[in-house]
């Protein structure tokens, strides 16, 4: 069970054996009574009928919508100095409430935001929806619960920064010899349905159904902050941000529904049943009856590599895993969408589909990726550096972390070196160049192409090659994203492909030396020097 109290207004809902279900306003606090607990002057206590559990909701501050108290089993879950809110707080807002059919709804409004907290009688989950007609001026849209560190000490270890020393920006820290950052709590949207923090006998979890990312940006593999352990235990749902945003402008409309669930410690189900919200008149909310389905088939992708089908237009985005050559994606809002066939995280083909409410539309997708018959390949053509040196660590630590393997520069020998020795990223000032040694047969020489695929670039970093005595032209700079990249724990940028033609007479039927250099017109030091992330290297 859970409930909130706030300084403005609070919701509390619970079984109704002990008190009346409803919402009351007292001074600047709005208190929601679940109906199963006791309401106290300082907030809300909720008793379930099955156990003597008290969940005090933070009151909702009626001047700005902040949640200022949350009491559960006698524990205050809310931090006492920094509150739970949208963005960095709404400043001032109109806060109203309504109760009907055992559902309490708190509506927090500004000129561009309508934010809802909804509680069902007897259920310890705060259902949330956020309508934004414009991007907040801070340039990101997030829900942040600033919880009590004492009550909820366990977050994501890689995101625990309290007492650390900043080593990059104001968001990457060194703590007890380990690099830490809120960015290292990020999980790709496609897998981030439940994340939370826990303490003794209590857990607080964000629940975000896959479809509830429809108004966010960046596609299925975009990752954003879930947690930071500072003086507070911060729990997030980032709806959009400039944290390596590869898809702009941000969408507007209804974000969610999502939820904050309070449990006795176990993670809640990812299957959040939001059907009861269909009739609540939420601004911008489209019920299941107003949505359609797309089914289809796909072919031509690399065997053994996961397939995802993505859908996007200016209003919404969706995705679904493909399996055995087919897929079915339900709950898509009406509209015309670009459909993307992903081989791993790499766009392999596209299509178009128009979705209508209550209808099923079909689409056929075929990979249009060039698949040459290669002489050799390093890595997998999947839009990710998975399998390369330090790729298993980069999502949860800074590249300078002493737990990382040495970055080199690396010399890789075709035929004997393992892919795990090939660097996942190449930094101009750290591990430049990467050298590939290859002993060719006479049948393998002549004019060839070296293809380098990358997943991300920073400060204009891209490859240029030297093969024996031949040096390639310098490719143009890749599209730039206004953000740090791999140093904040992600490889997910804009996939690029660089084809270098090696002229006849360059390769020899003995040992060849191929150097890959990071080049850029920009400068930078250390791991913030121009860099790129490898997907794969192929010779054909
Ligand atoms: C979801 O909730 C509705 C009532 O709001 C109920 O009718 C329906 O059976 C529930 N669905 C599932 C899968 O539990």
TrEMBL record:
EC number per UniProt: 4.2.2.23
EC top class, as a word: lyase
Reactions performed catalytically: Endotype eliminative cleavage of L-alpha-rhamnopyranosyl-(1->4)-alpha-D-galactopyranosyluronic acid bonds of rhamnogalacturonan I domains in ramified hairy regions of pectin leaving L-rhamnopyranose at the reducing end and 4-deoxy-4,5-unsaturated D-galactopyranosyluronic acid at the non-reducing end
GO BP of this protein: cell wall organization; pectin catabolic process
Assigned keywords, A-Z: Carbohydrate metabolism, Cell wall biogenesis/degradation, Disulfide bond, Lyase, Polysaccharide degradation, Secreted, Signal
Residue stretches making up the Rhamnogalacturonan lyase domain: 296-363, 375-539
InterPro entries according to UniProt: Carb-bd-like_fold (IPR013784), Gal_mutarotase_sf_dom (IPR011013), Galactose-bd-like_sf (IPR008979), GH-type_carb-bd (IPR014718), RG-lyase_II (IPR029413), RG-lyase_III (IPR029411), Rhamnogalacturonase_B (IPR016590), RhgB_N (IPR015364)
GO MF annotation, one: carbohydrate binding
Domain annotation Rhamnogalacturonase B N-terminal: ranges: 21-284
GO CC, any one term: extracellular region
Signal peptide: 1-19
Cellular location(s): Secreted
Pfam families xref list: CBM-like, fn3_3, RhgB_N
Family: Belongs to the polysaccharide lyase 4 family.
Record's protein name: rhamnogalacturonan endolyase
Organism the protein comes from: Mycena sanguinolenta
